[in-house]
What does this fold into?
Amino acid sequence: IFNGRQVQKGTTPWIAMLTHPGGQPFCGGSLLGTNWIVTAAHCLHQLLDPENQILHDSDLIRPSDFKIILGKHWRLQSDENEQHLMVKRIILHPLYSPTTFENDVGLVELLKSPMLNDFVMPICLPEGPPEEGAMVIVSGWGKQFLQRFPDTLMEIEIPIVDHRTCQDAYAQLRKNVTADMICAGEKEGGKDACAGDSGGPMVTLDKERGQWYLVGTVSWGDDCGKKDRYGVYSYIHHNKNWIQMVTGVRN
Amino acid sequence: HTVELNDMFGHIQSPGYPDSYPSDSEVMWNITVPEGFRIKLYFMHFDLESSYLCEYDYVKVETEDQVLANFCGRETTDTEQTPGQEAILSPGSFMSITFRSDFSNEERYTGFDAHYMAMDVDECTEREDEELSCDHYCHNYIGGYYCSCRFGYLLHTDNRTCRVECSDNLFTQRTGIITSPDFPNPYPKSSECFYTIELEEGFRVSLQFEDLFDIEDHPDVSCPYDYIKIKAGLKSLGPFCGEKAPGPINTQSHSVQILFHSDNSGENRGWKLSYSAAGNDCPVLQPPVHGKIEPLQAKYSFKDQVLISCDTGYKVQKDNVEMDTFQVECLKDGSWSNKIPICKVADCRAPAELEHGLITFSTRNNLTTYKSEIRYSCQQPYYKMLPNITGIYTCSAQGTWTNKILGRKLPTCLPVCGLPKVSRKLMAR
It folds into this structure.
């Protein structure tokens, strides 16, 4: 997270850390219901050969190749409230494209449910599109400025960017921002997600219900925190039906 | 001199016709036509000597057993008959004509010229005697006739009377009514009807004749025509016939066969009986405390069944098994199939666990019996109840924990989402 601040413990109880067996975190995610983690599809497969971007089953990471930690605050140090959970299976969005990052959303089913408490709690799914100009909070253990990893969970508070504006911004780079994506950040850059934050939550507050819900998951961008280079996120509301079809989760 | 004639038609004449006939002559013509026909004789010409009562010359027409006509003279007088234009019909298929002239004739008589023909007998309209007529429908045809029966009847081997198939009447109910076929209309002829009352061993069948009793009988011989016979176990009863019904019959048996036989004559209206079966009596029952017995009767007998049920909030308990009702039956030997069970207050037992939920009892000693209350709740603040109900369940009379809205179904505890306990500052704009 570029230009972020430390998260206050317990304010982001839905965040999940995806880690390799050796404990190295490689992506973020969000707890849905009690058995599912929503993350980015591109977190769930090996890096593909640039020349041959076709995804095979053999490219997917195996459930036994990683685990999920909930209730986490420190990046590497263990937390007293952390819960380690094994993975039962992973499901990538059927229309996910590793080359264009379209429908960059993946679901991880847990072998066992975590125990919910002040530090482990699911995030709600959106009831509708976010308000125009809504502020969102993006959090993760990804790289900060000068490529350093943080010690604790970091977060930024940024505005959602108009879809057309974002499309124009990336048109120059010949990158397509599609309807299943949503952008956020400042025009002048600065606050942004970055490598290692992928799959992590972009949330906002539903003022009527008083509940936080998931707007997006960290997906891609051009470098991190650069001017006119907004962060691009997988738009959850767009793929909510698919998510609910697979997980059965209701708010 | 006799002439045998067997054709279906023909003609006969006096000797020498059309010349005068000789004196002192006699000729007999025997005409025989097939069964089913009769003979029609008619004269085209008739001129005989007349005499008082035709004692001189005559033409006599007769059958085997009666004289149909005796003609003489030239015209009818009070003592002589001439055929004139009238035909003579034979009742059956035989006719004999005798011509006789005595030894003298006062003048020349030209005799007679007669013709005959066979004529179909319409047995359907002519048969009078019951013995011979058809029972239901008669169909005439040239030379004969045949009988047929109404729907539901069968033509008997005598080709005349109509019988019914009534040999498989089985009664298995404890009460019933049995009648002769078509009762109270005349019963069919030539029929053998079997009625079997077959009940479970232990029942005793009683018979009671009702309404009218009208079976063809005979003043001197006991029921030679139509009759009822009754077989019950080893006992045989009857034959019964006439117009006086037998009195009530207690067969003391659970299996009774009734044979009703009718011959091929008579128009009697038959009989009707009701039967009922009773078994050994069982002791009178007392309902259990907090329970009742249905039907409650002053007396119970074999096969009677009663249902034991309990007041609301109580369950029948039998051999440590709980149930809503329990049925006992009066057995053949007059004992009940089971003892009367007790009524125990319904107990809902320990309520089912609710995942991510809690249970609180409304009573200090965690009662689970009828009308006790518990309340389900979810592990707050991390779980919330769906649907959003009070979570209060009451032990119903059926012995199940029941909620006013969900009934027996439990709610579910769903994780609360998006509500961190540690709230953050208001979003900056």
Notes: Chain B touches chain A at residues 356, 379, 382-383, 414-424, 427-429 (CB under 8 Å). The mean pLDDT of chain B is 90. The first helix of chain B runs from residue 123 to 126.
